[in-house]
Backbone:
């Protein structure tokens, strides 16, 4: 079944094989840098590099364009509203009563939109190349309680099931002549039979799932072993070390030499 | 090629779910008023997919489905529900009201039935499925078999001209199954049609006069149950096994025993052949 919530694309590229924890570290570090920098060319450059990495890992362009379409309204909103409220700079473009728009404001808006896009696609590098099992396993290895990790796995696993259930309940109620035509409140009211039956069935499913888990000794007081464990390979450690070194260098450059601090120039 | 007599007309219908191989390939058939049809086939053969075309839950990728002469493509599901009733496999997918009586009345209400007529239809449905005593109970809190009876009564109360039942006997005991079959035969006697989706070949042999066999989305056989049940190779290829008594009768064909689909027929044949009276005293 096709699902829209999961951005993971199966594959065997080198990014897919990097330990999930290293990818989490990358996302954390790059997000920090993106938040302390404020430089349009740097953001665009990072976006381009991110896209090259994603495409090289076998993430189809179609998937990336879907994500862009989802992000676009938000990015446009930021780019348009930013210059309305940010008045710094001397190059005045528009001055109509209380409305004052500066060139710096416009570029700042673009930079902020690109910053959000760059952060989003950095997360995509992580999520598109890490399957859910490795994802949750990495959380558990980083200290999340196992039961919580299991709940997270089950929750993610059941999203398509719930979508199918909702569809099936909707069909069942429409077969009983429930009309789903109309808009707004009328349509919301027509959804009630579907929502209640879905909810009751979901609760019933959760109860049964709990029983079947316990029947298979979930939560037994013994030390757990795992079939699919994560292991940091030498190259994962190396990558982590390179990432950390690069981060520290960039951080020093940023605070000592003002790297990424001015809107358009790199220094 | 519209058949004026047909209630449902499936005209060269193919259907695929997105990005999947076709679930139905060029299926054509008609269902006339007053027919009791069994829709059979292995898991994933396309039974439910085909049945969902009868009330517009699915629209054909190519070909056309006509209900009472008009194309389903131009009509909504709730509109088609006036003609075609559908009982889903899982009764929990429809139960949402706080009492059994309200639940049973939901469909007729949507069809615009009100007042004494509504009361009468609900009462009749409750009585037929032995739910009268439970009418004020909360249906979600009842047992699984009872919930199934509630779902059946709810569809029955809509008085559809065609009732589609998807595996309706799961969770029903023998008694409730027999009751359901009696109700279905009564509907057929009134000139309404019944399509029964099932894996239970004993049920098919005992109740359906017509049988449709699907395999891999292709219509493999459509005809009288007695004739198709005799085609063992065809059924085997479609992953269906005729009821035990039919296989027994087929194995004994060489001693002059005619084919039989029910134990009753089989006993009758043996009695006729051997010339002895029946042990149970039945004529």
Residues:
């Amino acid at each position: 079944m096709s699902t829209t919530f999961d951005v993971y694309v199966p594959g065997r590229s080198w990014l897919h094989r990097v330990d999930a924890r290293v990818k989490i570290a990358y996302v954390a570090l790059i997000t920090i840098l993106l938040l302390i920098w404020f430089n349009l060319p740097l953001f665009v450059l990072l976006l381009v590099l991110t896209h090259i990495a994603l495409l090289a890992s076998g993430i189809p362009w179609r998937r990336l364009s879907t994500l862009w379409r989802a992000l676009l309204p938000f990015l446009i909103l930021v780019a348009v509203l930013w210059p309305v409220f940010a008045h710094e700079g001397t190059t005045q473009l528009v001055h109509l009563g209380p409305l004052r728009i500066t060139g710096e404001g416009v570029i700042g808006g673009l930079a902020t939109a690109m910053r959000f896009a760059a952060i989003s696609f950095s997360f995509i590098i992580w999520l598109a190349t890490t399957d859910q099992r490795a994802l949750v396993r990495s959380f558990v290895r980083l200290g999340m309680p196992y039961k919580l990790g299991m709940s997270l796995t089950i929750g993610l696993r059941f999203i398509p099931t719930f979508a199918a259930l909702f569809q099936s309940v909707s069909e069942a109620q429409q077969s009983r002549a429930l009309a789903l035509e109309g808009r707004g409140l009328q349509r919301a009211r027509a959804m009630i039979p579907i929502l209640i039956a879905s909810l009751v069935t979901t609760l019933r499913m959760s109860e049964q799932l709990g029983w079947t888990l316990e029947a298979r000794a979930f939560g037994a007081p013994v030390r757990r072993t795992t079939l699919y464990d994560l292991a940091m390979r030498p190259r994962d450690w190396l990558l982590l070390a390179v990432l950390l070194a690069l981060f520290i260098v960039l951080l020093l450059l940023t605070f000592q030499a003002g790297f990424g601090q001015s809107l358009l120039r790199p220094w | 090629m519209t058949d004026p007599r047909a209630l449902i007309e499936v005209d060269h219908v193919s259907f695929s779910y997105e990005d999947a191989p076709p679930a139905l390939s060029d299926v054509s058939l008609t269902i006339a008023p007053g027919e009791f049809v069994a829709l059979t086939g292995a898991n994933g053969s396309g039974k439910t997919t085909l049945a969902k075309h009868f009330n517009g839950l699915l629209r054909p990728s190519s070909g056309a489905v006509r209900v009472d002469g008009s194309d389903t493509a131009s009509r909504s599901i709730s509109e088609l529900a006036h003609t075609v009733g559908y009982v889903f496999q899982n009764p929990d997918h429809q139960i949402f009201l706080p009492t059994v009586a309200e639940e049973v009345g939901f469909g007729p209400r949507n069809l615009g039935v009100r007042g004494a007529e509504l009361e009468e239809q609900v009462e009749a449905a409750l009585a037929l499925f032995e739910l009268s005593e439970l009418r004020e109970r909360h249906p979600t809190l009842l047992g699984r078999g009872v919930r199934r009876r509630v779902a059946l009564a709810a569809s029955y109360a809509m008085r559809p001209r065609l009732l589609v039942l998807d595996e309706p006997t799961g969770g029903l005991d023998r008694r409730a199954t027999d009751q359901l079959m009696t109700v279905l035969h009564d509907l057929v006697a009134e000139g309404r049609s019944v399509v029964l989706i099932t894996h239970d070949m004993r049920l098919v042999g005992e109740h359906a006069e017509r049988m449709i066999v699907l395999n891999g989305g292709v219509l493999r056989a459509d005809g009288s149950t007695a004739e198709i049940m005799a085609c063992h190779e065809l059924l085997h290829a479609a992953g269906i096994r005729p009821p035990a008594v039919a296989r027994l009768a087929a194995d004994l064909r060489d001693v002059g025993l005619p084919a039989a689909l029910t134990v009753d027929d089989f006993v009758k044949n043996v009695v006729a052949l051997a010339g002895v009276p029946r042990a149970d005293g039945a004529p």
